[in-house]
Amino acid sequence: MVRIPAMTLLDRRAATRRRAFLPALGLLGLFGSVGLAQTTPPAPPPAPAPPRPGAPDRAGLLERVAALERQAREFDELRYRIGLAQDELVAASEAAEAFARGKTKDDFADPKVRREAELLTLAHQAAKEAYEGLTQGAARGRYVSLREKVVGGHRATLSELDRALARPDAGSPAVAPGGDLELRLARARLLAGLGRFGAARADVEAALLVAPEDPRVLGLLGMCLVDDDRMDEAAALFARACALDPTDERRAYLAIARYCTNDFAGARAARDEIADPKALPPSLRVRSAWWLTDGELERVEALWAREVRWRQAAAALEAPAGDAPPPGEAPAPGGAPPVGPDAPAPADPVVGEPAPGPDGARSEPGVGPGLPRVELVTARGRVVLELFEDTAPNAVAGLLELVGAGFYDGLAWHRVVPNYLAQTGDPTTRKAPAAPDAAPTGPPGPAAAPDAPGGRDDRGPGWRLVDDPVPEGGPRGLFRGTVALVRTEQPHSAGSQLFVLVMPAPAVDAHHLAVGRVLEGQGVVDRLEEGDRIERARVLRRRDHAYRVEKR
User: Fold this and answer.
1) What CA–CA distances, in Å, run from 158 to 48, 52, 227, 437?
2) What pLDDT sits at residue 365?
3) Looking at the DSSP assignment, which residues form a beta bridge with residue 500?
4) For residues 533 and 409, what is the distance between their CA atoms, to the nearest angstrom?
5) Best CA proximity match to 428, nearest among 403, 401, 405, 410
6) Which of 107, 153, 226, 355 is least buried, going by the fewest C-beta atoms within 10 A?
7) Cα dist. 393→74, 313, 318, 340 in Å?
8) Which residues have C-beta within 8 Å of that of residue 382, sequence separation ≥ 6?
9) Measured between alpha carbons, how far is 481 from 517 in angstroms, rounded to an integer?
């Protein structure tokens, strides 16, 4: 067996993450790298008043910021090269082990088998030497030195920037009301590089008062909005920044933001305008990144076109005859669906939503030809889901049964991953009754089931759904706003746990089952935090037939 040397510089978790789906390939890391805003700046505003004796030298401070950003980029480049070498080493080791697995001594008597084994061993040895060349000896010393300079430099430089911006003359008439533009942008870039987007946003918004059309300001604000899962607004800001000063970095940011909002055609257009992908900062040259890998973005775009046709077919049931586009019509320009997760739900021409009852609960659900709808009410707002009965009829029947029985009332969103998903449906998270004699709000939770995603017990309703047949052409994709049931690798393993995606997740399309989408309230989902609760869940509409659930 070929053994991998100890990883002395990199967190072992990195190797694990590369074997599973990494949301947005480390989205916050992509937008939070030091120096991302170092593109062609516009002409600076008039210089503020000369500093008083003892105050930090403005020009010298800005030069130190620039030097620190150059060091940070060199450090990022070295980390990137180590990551590539580590990937190669892991792949070579796994290839050698896979080849040797199951082979016998007699197999290695064959010269062809021996030669192939020798080639794999040579490939592994070369990968090992390349990795050790970047992580041992002088290379290790350089890595440690750069890391200390970057970390220490951030702290010291941020302290100096704080003092400089606190001076009375930092808000001089030349730059008022936002203070010294260049100093504020410098501090915002360093804060964003540390992932402190909330603090960076205060500086960016102050800079926006001074320079509302400065592409550097717009790009930094877009990065801060990404941290808040406000992808649509971020994409608009990156597009404005590209229109003012179209650099390759800004095109990459725009491609990422468009991808996160299901605008795959727009993402491809921005990606294809990147003149030199190899010259992008390391944070934008993520290994196996979809925006640089031939065919990957096109594959997701094709999945989205198929999804749009499903949605158009559903929309045709909602609109009066002649108003809806034919089900087979191509998607709208820019990849946007006729009804997106951030758009209001179309009015139901048949029955509309049921009216609230006297106690705030809803009456019997409406009945109509369109897809079923469910309402989830949280403290952060209301979310309306449209359920894919035409492609997952048994799963939808199970959800309607659970919602109708009050199963989801009081449950927590027990797993919220920023820029990825919000998950609920574990009955053990149900809010305890206010008093010992209070009636439970739903059925009790069953015993834990093994082999749950993420290492958690997959607690559910006490039964499992029989899997629906896979639609012709493959399962429906997982996009921003998609609602999916959590399943293990075993068949018939879905129960009550579901998640709502904040961004696309094409890497897990074939595993978890898409059962619906957000029709209203995607912004509410974006703002959910772990521990938030579903105050009540109600069926708004179902079709006019009996729903029978096949269970195990």
Assistant:
1) 20, 20, 21, 56
2) 80
3) 422, 483
4) 8
5) 410
6) 355
7) 54, 16, 19, 22
8) 375, 376, 520, 521, 524
9) 5
Residue 99 carries which side chain, given as an amino acid letter? F
Q: Who contacts 102 (Cβ-Cβ below 8 Å, separation ≥6)?
A: none
Q: How far is CA 401 from the centre of its chain?
A: 31
- Asked if residue 177 has a cis previous peptide bond (ω within 30° of 0), the answer is yes
Beta-strand pair 482-485/415-417:
unpaired
Q: Look at residue 7 in the predicted model and tell me its pLDDT.
A: 27
Tokens linked to 366: 């409406």
Strand residue runs (E) in 233-365: none
Count of other CB atoms within 10 angstroms of residue 479 = 26
Q: How many CB atoms lie within 10 A of CB 527?
A: 17
CA–CA–CA angle 368, 389, 409 (5° rounding): 85
Where is pLDDT greater, at 324 or 128? 128
Instruction: Output the CA torsion 154→155→160→161 (10° steps).
Output: 60
Rounded CA separation 214/40 (Å): 11
Q: Can you give the C-alpha Rg of the chain in angstroms?
A: 27
Q: Read off the pLDDT of residues 126-143 as tens digits, 9 standing for 90 and up.
A: 999 999 999 999 999 999
CA 549, CA 544: separation in Å to the nearest integer? 16
Whole-number pLDDT of residue 543 = 95
**What is the Cα–Cα distance from 531 to 115, expressed in whole angstroms?**
57
What amino acid occupies position 507? Answer: A
> What is the sign of the dihedral through the CA atoms of 284, 287, 292 and 298?
negative
How far apart, in whole angstroms, are the C-alpha atoms of residue 51 and residue 433?
Answer: 63
Residue 308 is encoded by which pair of tokens? 């749009």
DSSP 170: G
What's the whole-number mean pLDDT along residues 289-299?
75
373-378: strand order across its sheet: 366-367, 534-542, 373-378, 381-387, 513-520, 482-485, 498-501, 421-424, 415-417
pLDDT of residue 385: 98
> CA-CA distance, 36 to 38, in Å (whole number)?
6
58 and 48 Cβ atoms separated by less than 8 Å:
yes
Q: Is the pLDDT of residue 101 over 60?
A: yes
Cα(310)–Cα(299) distance, integer angstroms: 17
DSSP code for 374:
E
Compute φ and ψ for 455, nearest 5 degrees: 80, 5
Helix runs in 212-295, H state only = 215-227, 231-244, 248-260, 264-272
DSSP sequence for 405-456: TTTTTT-B--EEETTTEEEE--GGGPPPPSSTTPPPSSPPP----SS-GGG-
Element (H, E) at 373: strand 373-378
CB atoms within 10 A of CB 213: 12
